[in-house]
Amino acid sequence: MNKKIALSFGTRPELIKVLPVFQELVNQFGRKKILLIQTGQHSDLLDRELVHYKVSPDVQFKLNRNSSGLSELTGKLLLEFDEFSVQLASKGIQLSAMIAQGDTASTFASALHAFHQKVPFFHVEAGLRTYDNMNPFPEEFYRQSISEMTTLHFAPTETEYQHLIDEQKKPEDIRITGNTVIDHLSQVERVDTFKKVIITLHRRELTDSAYQEIVNYFKVLVPKSPGWTFSWITHPNRNMDLSELESLPNFKLLKPIPFYTFLDLYQTAGLIFTDSGGIQEEAAYLGIPCVVCRKTTERRQGIDAGVAKFFDQSFKTIEQVLTSFNQENLIQGNDIYGDGCSGQRIAEVIKTRIL
Questions:
Q1: 308 CB contacts (<8 Å, ≥6 apart)?
Q2: Which pLDDT tens digit goes with each residue over 288-305?
Q3: Pick the CATH number of 2-178+340-354 from 3.40.1080.10, 3.40.50.2000, 3.20.20.150, 3.40.50.2300
């Protein structure tokens, strides 16, 4: 029986965070031993990333999504995984392990399929928790459920390790590795022009009314900040009227951009407003103050270190926002989320587990 390791991804953030693992696994095992699966959850956002990083999936699911409903998405993913198993069996291929990252429907379906097939599941970015299933929704439920099906947990930091220990996971099945997104950031060189604000919002639990509150906040803040430029990067999950902001000379509305272009924005960013977990990690490592536009976050390390703050409408000027951060910890190379060697650590552990 020909044995291979499967590594799946469905969204752009998943691809970015599994790339360091994929590259190190190829170094350890050779490309022919790795099956890279694109589940198709966000195919429209992935093409440029795949071309840029010169990555070609071995398997690409065709979801033919007629709606954005989570039940439909999960059902179709599981059916595609079943067909994938049939194809492997016909070729005499057996999986040594299934690997996936994060807390999306794609990752949940990957873990559930592996469980059904009695294939070991290795979870990258394991142990993140808010313990509130509605924040973030549906990710918090997914990641807790994924942990119940996981054979080997790759926890980014000591915090996530302790969550898993508290949930009665075996210490020998947990490894602290850092977060793989940090592996990409060594190429980013910060410069001295910092009067730029990045805004990204996309989460499902951010209601229309809450989203509108944030829009209204910027309608006041942007005109009062003539020395600053504001770049709002849109996302397919959100479709709100920002025309009033677009009319302002120091405001730009940008279409979704690839990760490698986002890295260029980081070079001169002086402040970030986001509900993205990955951006919270990236901002902390790069020393960029980050305003978290959520009720809670599973990435408490940034909040505790003072390099991230929850959104607060009482701050009426950029200066008020910036002075609320811990300036001593706003340094490039802050390693609270990782040191840039996570992919290598994960691949080395996997090698010892499946050989």
A1: 280, 283, 284, 289, 290, 291, 292, 297, 299, 302
A2: 999 999 989 999 999 999
A3: 3.40.50.2000
